[in-house]
Amino acid sequence: MPEIYLYNIAATLKEVGLERAQSLLDSGEKEQVDKIKAESRLNEFVLGRYLLKKRLSEQTGQPAETLVLQKRAYGKLYLEGNPCFFNLSHSGNYLVVAISQKDEIGVDIEHVTRRSTHYTDIAQRYFTQAEGHAIKDAPSSEQSILFHEVWTKKEAVLKAAGIGLSGSLDAFNALETHPSTPIELLIKSAENAAMPEKHYAFHLKHWQFNDPNQTPVYLSASVCNGQVLPNFILHETEGLGLRAAS
Length: 246
Fold this sequence. Notes:
The protein is of the alpha+beta class. Helix content is 33%, strand content 27%. The protein has a single domain, classed as CATH 3.90.470.20. The mean pLDDT is 89.
């Protein structure tokens, strides 16, 4: 079953410590760290790799320090020769690790610390026509909620497909999805563009929270698993500081 681990970056980094988190970086990851200038971005990267490897170690039985993450064509991480599937996302103060033993998985989180005035423009340009109209016609207080529900659902599905935002954001209507009904899409291979499109079915789960300042946090996870209805398990780790939105 898909397992979703949700972390508060500052609280977890305080507990783990940056030096300890860096101890699990391989040589390639250390080179990436050397190029990161912003402290917040560095903390996200280092802590993300540490937490991901710790969770993968639990799943695979391999020591975390021996795990070397590889990248597929569109940047999705994987473990060579291991059937465990996983994904990672971070935004603002929060980070999420998603792991599945059986199926490709994608996850996206958005911590909306700054409001935009361009939700309707983006939606009408990139989303389906129905989604664009729904967001435009919604009361201004609800436009951000609808936009980020749609955005996180789409990104989670496209990440599960292994193509991320290189895929089409208007491939399905995220406002018409239901947890028990799979989203069926035709998708080109992320590894071989010459291959014909294949049919895939994705299941999707969406959550909405508020942080201690009542700032919204949106989270979506998706697995590519045909017609089998998955049981998503959400682990809210210590120090998270989130409450489910009413």
